Amino acid sequence: MINQLYDTSMSLLTDLYQLTMAYGYWKSGKAEQEAVFNLYFRKHPFAGGFTVAAGLCSVIEYLQDYRFNEEDLAYIGSLTGSDGNKLFDDGFLEYLRKLELHCSIDAIPEGTVVFPNEPLLRIQGPILQCQLLETPLLNLINFQSLIATKAARMRLVAKDDVLLEFGLRRAQGPDGGVTASRAAYIGGFDATSNVLAGKFYDIPVKGTHAHSWVMSFDSELEAFETYAKHMPNNVTLLVDTYDSLNGVRHAVEVGKQLRAGGHDLGGIRLDSGDLAYLSIEARKILDEAGFEKTNIVASNDLDEYIMDSLKIQGAKINVWGIGTKLVTAYDQPALGGVFKLAAIRTESGEWDYKLKLSEQAIKVSTPGIQQVRRFRDSNGFVSDMIFNTETPLIGKATMVDPYDFTKNRSFDESVPYEDLLVPVFAKGQLIYKLPSVHETRQRVQDQLAHFYKGIKRFVNPHTYPVGLEKDLFDLKTNLIFKLRAGNEA
């Protein structure tokens, strides 16, 4: 999608300081030093209990076409510092011109339910190359994971109802709209109004008419009849232009005409007013006229909380059209993903583990070449353990709560598990077969079905256990002591 939407090199989709650091690595002879970075987030969005990983498809597309073209290099070469001189010399531009990615990347597959501090991506390669990828990878993963999570929450409320994404007109630009449509579909929506997203991703597209269609005719009934005449196989009538319940009655008249011609009234749509009351009354009108299978579609700034309230009130809505609150992640418009250095290869070939300190415990990073092991029992997933792949796991594995060392849990070798990160790129070469968007969408629902229902609560959700393997916990603790002591000296 990126290559189709943007007919240009995307290597400059980055922050300037990534280029200035890359220049510094190159000038100081560190450009090829092997490093490992982890991409993760610190807190679930929406005060929830789970997050859906999304965006890997876009990451793969981006990296497969990564290059600096002549226009990119000319622009970089034109940048100046505070003294008016060029920021980057010609030798560095030539280095970028010949740059080919040789990074190895492991990732948690799209559609996987994930938790704070778990690496969604692990990037290993020359430190200059890894550094250049920080901003674009965060951009691609953060937003799509956010929207997929929002969509999954709405699917939990909707249950078997149909969910339609209507957000393009309120989305944050063309890319925000197309990307959000894909992420919403992954999260559990059934279709989108976004035709471009339908073309790119094979997502079903849905839509009928707006208020302007009705207003352009002398009467609502004439508008409905005209639409049904010309599109008899796609009739959902927007009934609230003037009076919602009268609109439903007009829709019934048109439905009878459709049946006479061998078609049927697919649905009526409510876009304003008391949706609980109007849907209940509309259902009565439709049922009394013999249109028991006609859908009632509702829209109007809906989100999971309003949907839940409407269901509690007995609303007779079975199709939900959701736009603004979904595609903008209205109540939390950003996922706080970060990209942290975790290890550097020394001249002797050993790993020098790295950790960022902070006065805030949540912002202290974790060192190591990390993998996530998900344990399960007969009821589903029970716990995730982050471990260092350089440390052999032999026999019983013990994990420690990173924020409370008194809490720990052990698993013997008989406990079933899955290691979540899988190889995607090996030294720059794609080795991963990307599932279809439909398979990824199904993965989300399969994953959620295997978690304790408490993590799916919207208010005070259950905290799913995620810990550090004991050796990794000790490594992190010792590094903290070492760095604090060195800083105090």
Concise summary:
Residues 371-476 form the Nicotinate phosphoribosyltransferase C-terminal domain. The protein has 489 residues and is an alpha/beta fold. The chain has helices at 2-5, 16-28, 56-64, 70-78, 90-97, 127-158, 173-187, 195-201, 211-215, 220-230, 244-260, 275-288, 304-312, 324-327, 437-449, 470-488, and strands at residues 34-41, 51-52, 104-107, 113-114, 121-126, 162-165, 191-192, 236-238, 267-270, 295-298, 319-322, 337-345, 351-353, 370-377, 380-388, 397-401, 404-411, 417-419, 422-426, 429-430, 466-469.
Overall description:
- InterPro entries: Aldolase_TIM, N/Namide_PRibTrfase, NAPRTase_C, NAPRTase_N, Nic_PRibTrfase-Fam, Nic_PRibTrfase_pncB, Nicotinate_pribotase-like_C.
- Its EC number is 6.3.4.21.
- Belongs to the NAPRTase family.
- Residues 164-345 form the Nicotinate/nicotinamide phosphoribosyltransferase domain.
- The protein starts with a helix and ends with a helix.
- 41% of the residues are buried.
- Among the domains are: 1-30 and 67-100, no CATH class; 154-327, Aldolase class I (TIM Barrel), CATH 3.20.20.
- With 489 residues, it is an alpha/beta fold.
- It has 16 helices and 21 strands.
- The strands form four sheets. A seven-stranded antiparallel beta sheet has the order 13-12-1-5-3-19-20. Strands 7-6-11-10-9-8 form a six-stranded parallel beta sheet. Strands 17-16-21-15-14-18 form a six-stranded mixed beta sheet.
- 39% of the residues lie in helices and 20% in strands.
